[in-house]
Design goal:
The protein is of the alpha/beta class. The protein has one domain: NAD(P)-binding Rossmann-like Domain (Rossmann fold), CATH 3.40.50.720. It contains eight helices and seven strands. A seven-stranded parallel β-sheet has the order 3-2-1-4-5-6-7, with helices on both faces. β4, α4 and β5 form a beta-alpha-beta unit. α1 crosses α8, α3 runs parallel beside α4 and α4 packs parallel to α5. 44% of the residues are buried.
């Protein structure tokens, strides 16, 4: 699977799935533009793979749009950046939900819009992968805002695939179960909390970031040329339980 000659923007590239994806795409020939919030993380990634870096907080939608415009032109987009704010549903506030939605749903939409407009203007095809979660279709305790944001991201994935497909732009999502990113480790480090989830995964373990990155690369690549509008469970079989 080669991405030689392709230029790709990966958001949330400083850590976890985004970092693993940036490194995997680079190893397969892509020119990587890495977007993240934390300058130290971006600097260390640039040292590893020589990528271009852009620092921006995707909770600020105008800043997200400006960052995308600075990264253009592109061939591929990975909307990976995400946050989770844990809170019991009876204590969840509108402000709290809006914070998560801005990063997990509204920023991916804004970036996809700018990306697609540029591709259409140049008359070239492209691909988008949104990093969602199996939380899009599960009810998880204390995850009201996160579950809602990922369900909305899946819905956007399907609409984007429908409307952008005629322009040769494919849009899909990956929906991993618990992945051992820094955020995943922090949220799922308690054995009492993790055990019931692990028990539902036939393969018996949580995912590594590189395993999600492999699915992302597949959906971006030519081997998935007729895969469009899919929300791909990447969960060790959790969904069959």
């Amino acid at each position: 699977m080669s991405f030689s000659g392709k230029r790709v923007l990966v958001t949330g590239a400083g850590k976890g799935i985004g970092r693993a994806t940036a490194k995997m795409l680079f190893a397969r020939g892509a020119e990587v533009v890495a977007l993240g919030r934390t300058r130290d993380d971006l600097d260390s990634l640039r040292t590893e793979i020589g990528c271009r870096t852009i620092s921006a907080d995707l909770a600020d939608i105008p800043a997200a749009v400006a960052a995308m415009r600075a990264a253009l032109p592109l061939d591929l987009l990975v909307n990976n950046a995400g946050i989770s704010v844990l809170c019991p549903v009876l204590e969840t506030t509108t402000a709290g939900i809006e914070q998560v939605l801005r990063v997990n749903t509204l920023a991916p939409l804004a970036l996809a819009q700018e990306f697609a407009k540029d591709l259409i203007g140049r008359g070239v095809p492209g691909a988008i992968v949104n990093v969602s979660s199996n939380a899009a279709w599960l009810g998880l305790r204390d995850h009201a805002s996160y579950c809602a944001s990922k369900a909305a991201l899946d819905a956007l994935t399907r609409v984007l695939a429908m409307e952008l497909g005629p322009h040769g732009i494919r849009v899909n999502s990956v929906n991993p179960a618990v992945t051992l990113t820094p955020m995943g480790v922090r949220v799922w480090s308690e054995p009492v909390k993790a055990a019931p989830v692990l028990a539902r995964i036939p393969l018996g373990r949580f995912l590594q970031p590189e395993e999600v990155a492999s699915a992302i690369c597949f959906l971006l690549g030519d081997d998935a040329a007729m895969v469009n509008g899919v929300c791909l469970p990447t969960d060790g079989g959790f969904a069959v339980g």
